[in-house]
């Protein structure tokens, strides 16, 4: 994939506001939003063998194998005329990060990290479940998902922090306040 491609990873716990803010970034900055979760869900809905395997991982609160997710992301980027991508909910762990960099061979220009308390994440996830009915938004799965997030995703955030690529956003604030901060970050980086 060509060097002119710009990738922004958007990370944060389940319910931290990644999807909400990505919609606003797309609207204001012309990025293509790729949600690893949405791509995985679409594959599940397709009924393919790969989709069935993904569904089993999700039901158990486990992370889908990196190659599967990277393959779906790469295909989506190759099929897009845009060269600016927001990748939301990925990489979830160091293996995801390494496989992405090996296969796609592009480092992100920025990593947005949405920081939110566990209590608020749980409240938002349960509220989202009432609206969208996701099978992984329930009190049985939520603690597993939060534990996986803390153990697996924080090392990725630490890695990119050490490279000066992470901007930490307090996502407990109202949606518009959070977006004002994001707009400032994107303006400074000329994204």
Task: Name the features.
191 residues, alpha/beta, 5-stranded parallel beta sheet, 8 helices, 5 strands
Explain the overall architecture:
The structure is a single chain. This protein is α/β, with parallel strands linked by helices. The protein is built from eight helices and five strands. A five-stranded parallel beta sheet has the order 2-3-1-4-5, sandwiched between helices. Helix 1 crosses helix 8, helix 2 packs across helix 3 and helix 4 crosses helix 5. The longest helix has 21 residues.
Q: Over the alpha carbons, how many angstroms does the gyration radius reach? A: 16 Å
Helix percent reads 55-70%
What's the total helix number?
8
| Main sheet strand line-up | 2-3-1-4-5
Q: Find the structural class using helix and strand composition.
A: alpha/beta
Q: What is the string of SSEs from the N terminus onward?
A: EHEHHHEHEHHEH
* Coarse shape: globular
Percent range for β-strand residues: 5-15%
Number of strands: 5
Mean pLDDT: 89
Low-confidence stretches: none
How many strands, what sense, and barrel or not for the largest sheet? 5 strands, parallel
User: Whole-Å distance between the termini?
Assistant: 19 Å
Helix/strand layout:
Blueprint: E1 6-12, H1 18-29, E2 32-35, H2 36-46, H3 49-59, H4 66-78, E3 84-88, H5 94-104, E4 110-115, H6 118-132, H7 142-162, E5 166-170, H8 175-188
Helix pairs in contact: 1-8, 2-3, 4-5
Short description:
The protein is an alpha/beta fold.
């Amino acid at each position: 994939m060509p060097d002119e491609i710009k990738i922004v990873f958007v990370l944060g716990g389940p319910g931290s506001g990644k999807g909400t803010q990505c919609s606003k970034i797309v609207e204001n900055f012309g990025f293509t939003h790729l949600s690893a979760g949405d791509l995985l869900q679409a594959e599940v809905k397709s009924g393919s063998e790969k989709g069935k395997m993904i569904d089993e991982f999700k039901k158990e609160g486990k992370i889908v194998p990196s190659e599967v997710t990277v393959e779906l992301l790469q295909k989506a980027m190759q099929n897009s005329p845009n060269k600016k991508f927001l990748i939301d909910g990925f990489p979830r762990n160091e293996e995801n990060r390494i496989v992405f960099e090996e296969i796609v061979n592009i480092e992100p220009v920025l990593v947005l990290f949405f920081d939110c308390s566990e209590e608020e994440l749980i409240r938002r996830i349960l509220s989202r479940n009432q609206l969208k009915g996701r099978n992984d938004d329930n009190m049985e799965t939520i603690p597993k998902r939060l534990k996986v997030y803390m153990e697996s995703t924080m090392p990725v955030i630490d890695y990119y922090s050490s490279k000066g690529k992470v901007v930490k956003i307090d996502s407990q604030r109202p949606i518009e306040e959070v977006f004002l901060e994001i707009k400032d970050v994107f303006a400074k980086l000329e994204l």
